[in-house]
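Revision sheet: structure tokens.
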Amino acid sequence: MKYLLSILFISISFNVLAQEVYPALIDSSKTLNDAYNKSIRIDMYIDTTKNEYKGCEILVTSVFELNKGYTLKLISRKYPTLVNGGEKIHILGSSNKISLKVTNVSDGLIRLLEDSIADIYIQSDRDIFFKIKKDNIDSTLKTCKITKYQIEKYTSKKIYLTNSMAKELIEAKGGNVFISQNQIDIGVIPAENASSKKTEYTTSFKFRERYPFYSKFPLYFYTEGLVSTNSKDSLNYLSIYPVNYNFTKENYELIFQLGVEGNQTFTNYRISGNLFWNGIIPNLINLTGDEDRLRLKPVIKVGLKLYKEIKTIGLGN
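Predicted:
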């Protein structure tokens, strides 16, 4: 039985290795941004006008089936430390192109891609394989590949964003002002300094995300707070604003908010409506020596608040 299984395994392996793989010819490539899904896509078009590829189409399902477990990452020759590897790159296919879709695009990466000399490309740990077919009548399938070298060649200096493309992505992620404010910080308060006389763990955060259901309508969800393992700490708070409407764009905003503000356990809370102006002001002192680097700018906020306190009875005693 073991002998038969060994023969079968060797036979299957030989058939896979015996399949002829044709090198794909890439005609061109270009970068597109998908602001609605907050992602960037690099399309590599296959030349199907010559030789054995003439009149052929890519079998889309084969792109997924033949490329499982791959590792793709962005590399910057000029700013290697500023591309943090948090991006996800997916391989997609259509009738005439192979696409590399970059998701989880960070705010720093968006700004970096506006730099035409950042020299960013995609590095793959293996070749990309796919099958092509002549037409619906000819069922013959040929296995093709785009080599690791081709991936680097046709993405090198092709991954960039124009000013308008970058603005679309930044707006989709919440706008310049809130991108600069989005944060999460985790801390520890030693027992000797904590009001509870026990070691406390705290988390402070600010986060805003645009609703995806209508791309042209600048409506956002926003939350901020300071919470800890000591839920009775009087400094803790939690604010949730399901409605945030932005009346303006660019580096300043006029925001209307409607939501709930309260302590960490919401035993005390209020309904709040806010109207405020947010603006990024230039750095007053330049300590960078005009070197290329990413840096946050100061934000000023001025506004009006109207609220209605909600009284709770018999809670928190």
